[in-house]
Design a protein that fits this description.
Elements (H helix, E strand, L loop, with lengths): L2 H16 L16 E4 L2 E5 L12 H14 L7 H5 L2 H14 L3 E5 L2 H12 L5 E5 L4 H10 L2 E5 L4 H14 L5 E6 L11 H11 L2 E5 L13 H4 L8 E5 L9 E5 L1 H10 L1 H5 L5 H16 L2 H20 L11 E6 L1 H14 L1 E2 L2 E2 L9 E5 L7 H17 L4
Parallel strand pairs: 2-11, 4-5, 4-6, 6-7, 7-8
Antiparallel strand pairs: 1-2, 3-9, 8-9, 10-13, 12-13
The protein binds 4'-deoxy-4'-aminopyridoxal-5'-phosphate (PMP).
4'-deoxy-4'-aminopyridoxal-5'-phosphate (PMP) binds next to helix 5.
Protein name: 8-amino-7-oxononanoate synthase
Catalytic activity: 6-carboxyhexanoyl-[ACP] + L-alanine + H(+) = (8S)-8-amino-7-oxononanoate + holo-[ACP] + CO2
GO molecular function, one term: 8-amino-7-oxononanoate synthase activity
Length: 395
Protein backbone atom coordinates (compact mmCIF):
# COMPACT_ATOMS: atom_id res chain seq x y z
CA UNK A 1 0.00 0.00 0.00
CA UNK A 2 1.28 3.49 -0.73
CA UNK A 3 2.55 5.37 2.34
CA UNK A 4 0.14 8.21 1.60
CA UNK A 5 -2.88 5.90 1.56
CA UNK A 6 -1.68 4.03 4.64
CA UNK A 7 -1.27 7.23 6.63
CA UNK A 8 -4.60 8.62 5.39
CA UNK A 9 -6.49 5.45 6.38
CA UNK A 10 -4.92 4.88 9.77
CA UNK A 11 -5.20 8.53 10.82
CA UNK A 12 -8.86 8.79 9.84
CA UNK A 13 -9.94 5.36 11.04
CA UNK A 14 -8.26 5.96 14.43
CA UNK A 15 -10.00 9.30 14.75
CA UNK A 16 -13.43 7.84 13.97
CA UNK A 17 -12.89 4.97 16.41
CA UNK A 18 -11.66 7.22 19.21
CA UNK A 19 -14.78 9.42 18.82
CA UNK A 20 -17.06 6.39 18.87
CA UNK A 21 -18.23 7.20 15.34
CA UNK A 22 -17.06 4.01 13.64
CA UNK A 23 -19.93 1.68 12.84
CA UNK A 24 -19.16 -2.04 12.86
CA UNK A 25 -21.25 -3.92 10.29
CA UNK A 26 -23.18 -6.90 11.65
CA UNK A 27 -23.65 -9.98 9.49
CA UNK A 28 -27.10 -11.60 9.26
CA UNK A 29 -27.09 -15.39 9.21
CA UNK A 30 -30.27 -15.86 7.20
CA UNK A 31 -33.14 -13.77 5.86
CA UNK A 32 -34.05 -10.23 6.81
CA UNK A 33 -37.34 -10.33 8.71
CA UNK A 34 -38.97 -9.36 12.00
CA UNK A 35 -36.43 -11.62 13.71
CA UNK A 36 -32.86 -11.98 12.54
CA UNK A 37 -29.91 -14.12 13.56
CA UNK A 38 -26.55 -12.52 14.28
CA UNK A 39 -23.63 -14.53 15.71
CA UNK A 40 -26.05 -17.37 16.41
CA UNK A 41 -28.47 -15.23 18.44
CA UNK A 42 -32.06 -14.48 17.46
CA UNK A 43 -32.97 -10.81 17.82
CA UNK A 44 -36.14 -8.79 17.29
CA UNK A 45 -35.29 -6.70 14.26
CA UNK A 46 -36.31 -3.04 14.39
CA UNK A 47 -33.70 -1.81 11.92
CA UNK A 48 -34.81 -2.77 8.44
CA UNK A 49 -36.67 -0.84 5.76
CA UNK A 50 -38.56 -4.00 4.91
CA UNK A 51 -41.78 -2.18 5.84
CA UNK A 52 -44.25 -4.75 4.55
CA UNK A 53 -42.13 -7.82 5.31
CA UNK A 54 -41.93 -8.65 1.61
CA UNK A 55 -38.15 -9.23 1.47
CA UNK A 56 -38.66 -12.88 2.42
CA UNK A 57 -42.24 -13.35 1.19
CA UNK A 58 -42.98 -16.75 -0.37
CA UNK A 59 -44.91 -15.20 -3.29
CA UNK A 60 -42.01 -12.91 -4.26
CA UNK A 61 -39.56 -15.78 -3.95
CA UNK A 62 -41.72 -17.95 -6.22
CA UNK A 63 -41.92 -15.14 -8.79
CA UNK A 64 -38.13 -14.74 -8.66
CA UNK A 65 -37.54 -18.47 -9.13
CA UNK A 66 -39.97 -18.65 -12.05
CA UNK A 67 -38.35 -15.65 -13.77
CA UNK A 68 -34.90 -17.14 -13.23
CA UNK A 69 -36.00 -20.37 -14.90
CA UNK A 70 -37.40 -18.46 -17.85
CA UNK A 71 -34.85 -15.66 -18.31
CA UNK A 72 -31.69 -16.78 -16.49
CA UNK A 73 -29.87 -15.05 -13.68
CA UNK A 74 -28.62 -11.97 -15.50
CA UNK A 75 -29.96 -9.54 -18.08
CA UNK A 76 -26.72 -9.72 -19.99
CA UNK A 77 -26.18 -6.09 -20.92
CA UNK A 78 -27.10 -2.50 -20.21
CA UNK A 79 -30.68 -1.65 -21.13
CA UNK A 80 -29.90 0.25 -24.34
CA UNK A 81 -27.69 -2.46 -25.81
CA UNK A 82 -29.68 -5.62 -25.22
CA UNK A 83 -30.46 -5.77 -21.52
CA UNK A 84 -34.10 -4.68 -21.77
CA UNK A 85 -36.39 -7.68 -21.36
CA UNK A 86 -40.17 -7.68 -21.47
CA UNK A 87 -40.24 -8.01 -17.67
CA UNK A 88 -38.30 -4.75 -17.32
CA UNK A 89 -40.79 -2.82 -19.46
CA UNK A 90 -43.72 -4.57 -17.80
CA UNK A 91 -42.38 -3.51 -14.39
CA UNK A 92 -42.14 0.09 -15.61
CA UNK A 93 -45.73 0.02 -16.87
CA UNK A 94 -46.95 -1.38 -13.55
CA UNK A 95 -45.04 1.28 -11.61
CA UNK A 96 -46.47 4.08 -13.75
CA UNK A 97 -50.00 2.80 -13.20
CA UNK A 98 -49.41 2.41 -9.47
CA UNK A 99 -48.01 5.93 -9.20
CA UNK A 100 -50.67 7.50 -11.44
CA UNK A 101 -48.26 8.75 -14.14
CA UNK A 102 -47.84 8.24 -17.90
CA UNK A 103 -44.57 6.33 -17.66
CA UNK A 104 -41.72 5.15 -15.43
CA UNK A 105 -38.05 4.20 -15.71
CA UNK A 106 -36.29 1.67 -13.51
CA UNK A 107 -32.70 1.89 -12.27
CA UNK A 108 -30.51 -0.57 -10.36
CA UNK A 109 -30.86 1.24 -7.05
CA UNK A 110 -32.50 4.26 -5.51
CA UNK A 111 -29.10 5.82 -5.00
CA UNK A 112 -28.03 5.64 -8.61
CA UNK A 113 -31.53 6.64 -9.71
CA UNK A 114 -31.12 9.96 -7.90
CA UNK A 115 -27.60 10.37 -9.26
CA UNK A 116 -28.75 9.65 -12.81
CA UNK A 117 -32.13 11.37 -12.92
CA UNK A 118 -31.13 14.69 -11.35
CA UNK A 119 -28.00 15.05 -13.45
CA UNK A 120 -29.84 14.12 -16.66
CA UNK A 121 -32.03 17.19 -16.39
CA UNK A 122 -30.14 19.77 -14.35
CA UNK A 123 -26.90 21.40 -15.54
CA UNK A 124 -24.39 24.03 -14.50
CA UNK A 125 -26.74 26.67 -15.92
CA UNK A 126 -29.44 25.74 -13.40
CA UNK A 127 -30.19 25.96 -9.68
CA UNK A 128 -31.54 23.34 -7.31
CA UNK A 129 -33.38 24.30 -4.14
CA UNK A 130 -32.88 21.40 -1.77
CA UNK A 131 -34.41 20.69 1.66
CA UNK A 132 -31.56 20.77 4.18
CA UNK A 133 -32.40 17.27 5.48
CA UNK A 134 -32.48 15.55 2.10
CA UNK A 135 -30.92 12.10 1.69
CA UNK A 136 -27.25 11.71 0.72
CA UNK A 137 -28.13 10.35 -2.74
CA UNK A 138 -30.08 13.53 -3.52
CA UNK A 139 -27.17 15.66 -2.37
CA UNK A 140 -24.75 13.67 -4.51
CA UNK A 141 -27.07 13.79 -7.54
CA UNK A 142 -27.35 17.55 -7.17
CA UNK A 143 -23.57 17.90 -6.90
CA UNK A 144 -23.03 15.71 -9.95
CA UNK A 145 -25.34 17.89 -12.04
CA UNK A 146 -23.10 20.93 -11.53
CA UNK A 147 -26.15 23.09 -10.76
CA UNK A 148 -25.98 25.75 -8.05
CA UNK A 149 -27.30 24.13 -4.85
CA UNK A 150 -29.36 26.33 -2.55
CA UNK A 151 -30.28 24.79 0.80
CA UNK A 152 -33.84 25.40 1.96
CA UNK A 153 -34.78 25.29 5.65
CA UNK A 154 -36.40 21.97 6.52
CA UNK A 155 -40.04 21.90 5.34
CA UNK A 156 -40.18 25.72 5.32
CA UNK A 157 -42.40 26.79 2.42
CA UNK A 158 -41.80 30.51 3.01
CA UNK A 159 -38.03 29.99 2.84
CA UNK A 160 -38.57 28.01 -0.38
CA UNK A 161 -40.69 30.78 -1.88
CA UNK A 162 -38.19 33.51 -0.95
CA UNK A 163 -35.18 31.61 -2.26
CA UNK A 164 -37.01 30.69 -5.48
CA UNK A 165 -37.92 34.36 -6.06
CA UNK A 166 -34.33 35.41 -5.38
CA UNK A 167 -32.94 32.79 -7.76
CA UNK A 168 -35.36 33.84 -10.50
CA UNK A 169 -34.68 37.54 -10.03
CA UNK A 170 -30.93 36.94 -10.29
CA UNK A 171 -31.47 35.92 -13.91
CA UNK A 172 -28.57 33.50 -13.53
CA UNK A 173 -30.42 30.24 -14.10
CA UNK A 174 -32.21 28.60 -17.02
CA UNK A 175 -34.20 26.19 -14.84
CA UNK A 176 -34.81 25.87 -11.13
CA UNK A 177 -35.75 22.61 -9.36
CA UNK A 178 -37.09 21.98 -5.87
CA UNK A 179 -36.21 18.60 -4.45
CA UNK A 180 -37.32 16.97 -1.21
CA UNK A 181 -37.72 13.62 0.46
CA UNK A 182 -41.39 12.53 0.60
CA UNK A 183 -40.88 10.98 4.04
CA UNK A 184 -37.78 11.99 5.98
CA UNK A 185 -36.19 8.76 7.15
CA UNK A 186 -34.46 10.03 10.28
CA UNK A 187 -37.50 11.76 11.83
CA UNK A 188 -40.44 10.18 10.02
CA UNK A 189 -42.03 13.51 9.07
CA UNK A 190 -43.94 13.84 5.78
CA UNK A 191 -43.25 16.46 3.09
CA UNK A 192 -45.91 19.15 2.68
CA UNK A 193 -46.84 18.10 -0.86
CA UNK A 194 -49.75 20.58 -1.27
CA UNK A 195 -47.44 23.43 -0.15
CA UNK A 196 -44.68 22.22 -2.50
CA UNK A 197 -47.11 22.01 -5.44
CA UNK A 198 -48.36 25.52 -4.73
CA UNK A 199 -44.90 27.13 -4.61
CA UNK A 200 -43.58 25.13 -7.56
CA UNK A 201 -46.54 26.17 -9.72
CA UNK A 202 -46.33 29.80 -8.63
CA UNK A 203 -42.56 30.03 -9.22
CA UNK A 204 -42.36 27.62 -12.18
CA UNK A 205 -40.05 25.20 -10.37
CA UNK A 206 -39.39 21.64 -11.51
CA UNK A 207 -40.62 19.43 -8.64
CA UNK A 208 -38.81 16.26 -7.53
CA UNK A 209 -39.97 14.07 -4.63
CA UNK A 210 -37.79 11.19 -3.43
CA UNK A 211 -40.39 8.89 -1.92
CA UNK A 212 -38.07 6.05 -0.91
CA UNK A 213 -39.74 5.82 2.51
CA UNK A 214 -43.24 6.79 1.38
CA UNK A 215 -43.83 4.11 -1.25
CA UNK A 216 -45.71 1.18 0.24
CA UNK A 217 -46.30 3.23 3.37
CA UNK A 218 -48.25 6.37 2.39
CA UNK A 219 -51.26 6.68 0.09
CA UNK A 220 -52.33 3.06 0.68
CA UNK A 221 -48.97 2.05 -0.75
CA UNK A 222 -48.82 4.33 -3.78
CA UNK A 223 -46.76 6.92 -1.93
CA UNK A 224 -46.78 10.40 -0.49
CA UNK A 225 -47.59 12.26 -3.70
CA UNK A 226 -50.68 10.15 -4.39
CA UNK A 227 -51.62 10.34 -0.71
CA UNK A 228 -52.14 14.08 -1.23
CA UNK A 229 -53.80 13.58 -4.64
CA UNK A 230 -51.02 15.30 -6.60
CA UNK A 231 -49.76 12.55 -8.92
CA UNK A 232 -50.12 14.83 -11.93
CA UNK A 233 -48.53 17.87 -10.27
CA UNK A 234 -45.11 16.56 -9.26
CA UNK A 235 -42.66 16.21 -12.15
CA UNK A 236 -40.45 13.48 -10.69
CA UNK A 237 -41.94 10.83 -8.40
CA UNK A 238 -38.78 8.97 -7.47
CA UNK A 239 -38.84 5.81 -5.38
CA UNK A 240 -36.95 2.71 -4.42
CA UNK A 241 -37.72 -0.96 -4.87
CA UNK A 242 -35.57 -1.85 -1.86
CA UNK A 243 -37.70 -0.83 1.09
CA UNK A 244 -41.46 -1.57 1.19
CA UNK A 245 -41.23 -3.45 -2.11
CA UNK A 246 -38.58 -5.61 -0.46
CA UNK A 247 -36.17 -6.20 -3.35
CA UNK A 248 -33.67 -3.72 -4.86
CA UNK A 249 -33.79 -0.99 -7.52
CA UNK A 250 -34.97 2.57 -8.02
CA UNK A 251 -37.37 4.36 -10.33
CA UNK A 252 -38.78 7.65 -11.52
CA UNK A 253 -42.44 7.92 -12.48
CA UNK A 254 -43.51 10.95 -14.52
CA UNK A 255 -44.62 12.18 -17.93
CA UNK A 256 -43.80 10.19 -21.07
CA UNK A 257 -41.48 12.96 -22.28
CA UNK A 258 -39.55 13.02 -19.01
CA UNK A 259 -39.09 9.25 -19.05
CA UNK A 260 -38.09 9.29 -22.75
CA UNK A 261 -35.43 11.88 -21.90
CA UNK A 262 -34.10 9.92 -18.91
CA UNK A 263 -33.82 6.84 -21.12
CA UNK A 264 -31.40 8.66 -23.39
CA UNK A 265 -29.55 10.77 -20.83
CA UNK A 266 -29.47 9.13 -17.35
CA UNK A 267 -26.00 7.63 -17.17
CA UNK A 268 -26.67 4.67 -14.80
CA UNK A 269 -29.45 3.62 -17.21
CA UNK A 270 -27.12 3.94 -20.20
CA UNK A 271 -23.95 2.47 -18.73
CA UNK A 272 -24.89 -0.04 -16.02
CA UNK A 273 -26.50 -3.45 -16.48
CA UNK A 274 -30.23 -3.75 -15.82
CA UNK A 275 -31.95 -5.44 -12.88
CA UNK A 276 -31.77 -9.22 -12.82
CA UNK A 277 -34.92 -10.96 -14.16
CA UNK A 278 -35.60 -12.38 -10.67
CA UNK A 279 -35.39 -8.87 -9.27
CA UNK A 280 -37.84 -7.43 -11.80
CA UNK A 281 -40.33 -10.29 -11.36
CA UNK A 282 -40.25 -10.09 -7.55
CA UNK A 283 -40.90 -6.33 -7.71
CA UNK A 284 -43.93 -6.89 -9.97
CA UNK A 285 -45.29 -9.44 -7.54
CA UNK A 286 -44.84 -6.97 -4.68
CA UNK A 287 -46.78 -4.30 -6.58
CA UNK A 288 -49.53 -6.81 -7.34
CA UNK A 289 -49.81 -7.66 -3.64
CA UNK A 290 -49.86 -3.99 -2.62
CA UNK A 291 -52.55 -3.17 -5.18
CA UNK A 292 -54.78 -6.13 -4.38
CA UNK A 293 -54.49 -6.38 -0.63
CA UNK A 294 -54.19 -3.50 1.83
CA UNK A 295 -53.73 -5.74 4.87
CA UNK A 296 -49.92 -5.49 5.05
CA UNK A 297 -50.12 -1.71 4.81
CA UNK A 298 -52.75 -1.61 7.58
CA UNK A 299 -50.71 -3.92 9.82
CA UNK A 300 -47.62 -1.74 9.34
CA UNK A 301 -49.49 1.34 10.52
CA UNK A 302 -51.12 -0.53 13.43
CA UNK A 303 -47.70 -1.73 14.60
CA UNK A 304 -46.22 1.74 14.16
CA UNK A 305 -48.97 3.38 16.20
CA UNK A 306 -48.66 0.78 18.97
CA UNK A 307 -44.88 1.05 19.25
CA UNK A 308 -44.92 4.85 19.28
CA UNK A 309 -47.66 5.10 21.89
CA UNK A 310 -45.99 2.59 24.21
CA UNK A 311 -42.50 4.11 23.94
CA UNK A 312 -43.98 7.52 24.70
CA UNK A 313 -45.81 6.10 27.74
CA UNK A 314 -42.47 4.77 28.99
CA UNK A 315 -41.09 8.32 28.84
CA UNK A 316 -38.87 8.16 25.72
CA UNK A 317 -38.52 11.15 23.40
CA UNK A 318 -39.85 9.85 20.08
CA UNK A 319 -39.80 13.17 18.22
CA UNK A 320 -42.62 14.08 15.84
CA UNK A 321 -42.83 11.20 13.42
CA UNK A 322 -45.98 11.05 11.27
CA UNK A 323 -45.19 7.59 9.89
CA UNK A 324 -44.27 4.18 11.35
CA UNK A 325 -40.61 5.32 11.54
CA UNK A 326 -40.01 5.65 15.28
CA UNK A 327 -36.87 7.43 16.43
CA UNK A 328 -35.93 7.29 20.11
CA UNK A 329 -33.87 10.44 20.49
CA UNK A 330 -31.07 10.11 23.02
CA UNK A 331 -28.86 13.09 22.08
CA UNK A 332 -25.21 12.53 22.95
CA UNK A 333 -23.37 10.24 20.50
CA UNK A 334 -21.57 7.84 22.87
CA UNK A 335 -24.65 7.38 25.07
CA UNK A 336 -26.71 6.69 21.93
CA UNK A 337 -24.28 4.04 20.80
CA UNK A 338 -24.16 2.48 24.27
CA UNK A 339 -27.95 2.44 24.38
CA UNK A 340 -28.15 0.60 21.07
CA UNK A 341 -25.40 -1.84 22.14
CA UNK A 342 -27.31 -2.71 25.31
CA UNK A 343 -30.57 -3.18 23.38
CA UNK A 344 -28.82 -5.59 21.05
CA UNK A 345 -27.27 -7.49 23.98
CA UNK A 346 -30.75 -7.83 25.48
CA UNK A 347 -32.34 -9.01 22.21
CA UNK A 348 -33.58 -5.97 20.25
CA UNK A 349 -31.73 -5.08 17.09
CA UNK A 350 -32.25 -1.30 16.96
CA UNK A 351 -29.28 0.61 15.60
CA UNK A 352 -27.91 3.95 16.65
CA UNK A 353 -27.82 6.74 14.12
CA UNK A 354 -25.37 9.49 14.93
CA UNK A 355 -23.44 12.33 13.31
CA UNK A 356 -22.82 12.74 10.36
CA UNK A 357 -26.07 10.96 9.36
CA UNK A 358 -27.98 13.24 11.76
CA UNK A 359 -26.82 16.57 13.24
CA UNK A 360 -24.37 16.42 16.20
CA UNK A 361 -26.18 16.09 19.54
CA UNK A 362 -29.31 14.48 18.06
CA UNK A 363 -28.15 10.84 18.16
CA UNK A 364 -31.02 8.39 18.10
CA UNK A 365 -31.95 4.77 18.02
CA UNK A 366 -34.25 4.37 15.06
CA UNK A 367 -37.02 1.79 15.14
CA UNK A 368 -38.66 0.54 11.99
CA UNK A 369 -41.65 -1.62 12.90
CA UNK A 370 -42.93 -3.64 9.96
CA UNK A 371 -46.09 -5.47 8.96
CA UNK A 372 -44.31 -8.73 9.82
CA UNK A 373 -43.87 -8.01 13.53
CA UNK A 374 -46.31 -9.75 15.86
CA UNK A 375 -47.74 -7.94 18.89
CA UNK A 376 -45.74 -10.32 21.13
CA UNK A 377 -42.48 -9.32 19.45
CA UNK A 378 -43.21 -5.62 19.96
CA UNK A 379 -44.23 -6.19 23.59
CA UNK A 380 -40.99 -8.05 24.23
CA UNK A 381 -39.03 -5.22 22.57
CA UNK A 382 -40.81 -2.68 24.81
CA UNK A 383 -39.92 -4.63 27.97
CA UNK A 384 -36.27 -4.53 26.88
CA UNK A 385 -36.50 -0.82 26.05
CA UNK A 386 -37.83 -0.10 29.53
CA UNK A 387 -35.07 -2.11 31.22
CA UNK A 388 -32.23 -0.54 29.21
CA UNK A 389 -33.76 2.94 29.41
CA UNK A 390 -33.83 2.79 33.22
CA UNK A 391 -30.37 1.24 33.46
CA UNK A 392 -28.79 4.05 31.41
CA UNK A 393 -30.87 6.84 32.93
CA UNK A 394 -32.61 7.71 29.65
CA UNK A 395 -36.05 7.40 31.26
N1 LIG B 1 -33.46 8.06 -1.02
C1 LIG B 1 -33.75 7.94 0.29
C2 LIG B 1 -34.58 9.00 0.94
C3 LIG B 1 -33.30 6.83 1.02
O1 LIG B 1 -33.57 6.70 2.31
C4 LIG B 1 -32.54 5.84 0.35
C5 LIG B 1 -32.03 4.59 1.07
N2 LIG B 1 -31.46 4.76 2.28
C6 LIG B 1 -32.25 6.02 -0.99
C7 LIG B 1 -32.74 7.13 -1.66
C8 LIG B 1 -31.43 5.02 -1.75
O2 LIG B 1 -32.20 3.92 -2.04
P1 LIG B 1 -31.56 2.50 -2.37
O3 LIG B 1 -31.29 1.84 -1.07
O4 LIG B 1 -32.59 1.83 -3.19
O5 LIG B 1 -30.30 2.76 -3.13
Amino acid sequence: MSKALDSFLSRNLDELKSKGLYNEIDVLEGANGPKITIRGRQLINLSSNNYLGLANDARLKAAAVEATEKYGVGAGAVRTINGTMDIHTELEKKLARFKGTEAAIVFQSGFNCNMGAISAVMTKNDAILSDELNHASIIDGCRLSGAKIIRVKHQDMEDLREKAKEAKLSGLYEKIMYISDGVFSMDGDVANIPGIVEVCKEQDLISYIDDAHGSGVMGHGAGTVKHFGHAKDIDFQMGTLSKAIGVVGGYVAGSQDLIDWLKVRARPFLFSTSLTPANAAACMEAIRIMEEDGSLHDKLWENGRFLKAELKKLGFNIGNSETPITPVIIGEETLTQKFSRRLIEEGVYAKSIVFPTVPMGTGRVRNMPTAAHSREMLEEALRIYERVGKELGVI
